[in-house]
Amino acid sequence: MMAKKSLNQLHESRGTGSGPLSNLIPVSDLSAQGRDVLINATAEDLAAISAASNLRSVDYLKAGFHVLKGPGALLVVQGTLKAGVVQTCGVSLVPVEAHVEADITQTYTLNQVSEGKEVEIAVSDDDPPEPVTNGQIDFGALALEHFILNLNPYPRAPDVQFQTEALGYEGEDGETFKNSPFSALAGLKTGGTDR
Question: Which bin fits 54, alpha (ψ -120 to 50), beta or left (φ > 0)?
Fold first, then answer.
């Protein structure tokens, strides 16, 4: 839920230069050899990202990209992201340190798509190209999007375990819940119930 909300806020600011980490690069500045783009979040960026993502803290966030002109009107961006965060354990509510790492590949198209115009996308395209907005790519927004997508949605402290005894769990095979509704159904199917 929190990641979805943060992602919606991110998409609203994407390409506008208004979000944390925003780093707009005009595609006209790209040479035939490509270009390297480095992102290193400031303390102000980290605080804003932490608040927007409902995290206890974001200790660091770094990303490096290389962008190349691809075939036709395509631009290909490849990069890596590394971040250190402190989340809240979903069971005990204690702080949980975690590292976020992601390899990023994103394709952009320079072709402008007008409203109401049909766009052909091959069925084999798992990730169709993103349009370039206002002649620029926001590499900070790209890094932030992948940071949010790679956060652990269910952080748990290493020494925390669920209380399975209350559910009547007897073993590791996933089939032995003594008090579950399914055990009663199984009893009906065999002609009796365990009561």
Answer: left
